[in-house]
Amino acid sequence: MNSTALTDVRFPNVRIHESSYVDERVQIGEGTRIWHFCHILDDVTIGRNCSIGQNVMIGPRVTVGNNCKIQNNVSLYEGITLEDDVFCGPSCVFTNVINPRSAISRKAEFRSTLVKCGATIGANATIVCGYAVGSYAFVAAGAVVTRDVPDFALMAGVPARRVGWMSHYGERLDRNLICPATKRRYQEVAPDRLVSLE
Ligand SMILES: CC(C)(COP(=O)(O)OP(=O)(O)OC[C@H]1O[C@@H](n2cnc3c(N)ncnc32)[C@H](O)[C@@H]1OP(=O)(O)O)[C@@H](O)C(=O)NCCC(=O)NCCS
């Protein structure tokens, strides 16, 4: 951040750009940076060492884990939960109402979305509400997720289908289910279930 960046006295060791608003009942862990034009609403908890990009809206009542990266132009509405180490690509979209109508209030019908530890959501992807994205799953850019996503699954297309498996490291597994970068080994224990052997 440049010299106009401010440290909010409410949050020691957190950098919050002066163009962003953080409401009253918010907790933010040390080392987190909040860039320009963000709004963090009441009853939000953000973990340590997160990066919140430009024009991000979070809340109310949303939890973001430690070490998450949320790129520009993302809104995390009530009902969304991010565990630790989640990457949200630029302009990815979360939803919380399955059948919205402007003239009908559906606030009592929010469906939740859980993004588990280490998962990546690609740029411009959409996560339809009511599903869980598994640990270390990888949603390709532009995909539309319409069901639960298994751990380590590489999901692409509209609607998103599993087109492969991704390692912890974020590399596509080869046919032997070995990460080309780290050589970590995995095993398919059921048609849509991968586990790490290490
Ligand atoms: C999904 C992804 C990881 C695939 O990478 P990859 O394994 O190197 O894939 P390749 O480029 O070799 O493409 C393999 C095939 O998948 C297709 N493909 C690649 N990305 C795709 C996507 N996002 N959606 C649908 N199909 C895709 C390619 O067209 C290609 O198809 P083909 O075999 O019919 O020619 C990558 O394309 C992607 O979407 N990354 C996310 C990037 C992002 O959003 N970053 C955000 C912050 S910068």
Task: Describe the model.
Helix content is 0%, strand content 31%. The chain has 198 residues and is an all-beta fold. It has one domain (7-173): Hexapeptide repeat proteins (UDP N-Acetylglucosamine Acyltransferase, domain 1). The strands form five sheets. The protein has a nine-stranded mixed β-sheet, with no helix packed on it. A six-stranded parallel β-sheet has the order 3-6-9-12-15-18, with no helix packed on it. The relative contact order is 0.09. The model has no long low-confidence stretch (mean pLDDT 95). Bound molecules: coenzyme A. Coenzyme A (COA) binds next to loops.
Question: How is this fold's topology laid out?
Answer:
Elements: E1 15-16, E2 21-22, E3 26-28, E4 33-34, E5 39-40, E6 44-46, E7 51-52, E8 57-58, E9 63-64, E10 69-70, E11 75-76, E12 80-82, E13 87-88, E14 93-94, E15 113-115, E16 120-121, E17 126-127, E18 132-133, E19 138-139, E20 144-145, E21 153-156, E22 161-165, E23 186-190, E24 193-196
Parallel strand pairs: 1-4, 2-5, 3-6, 4-7, 5-8, 6-9, 7-10, 8-11, 9-12, 10-13, 12-15, 13-16, 14-17, 15-18, 16-19, 17-20, 19-21
Antiparallel strand pairs: 21-22, 23-24
The structure holds coenzyme A.
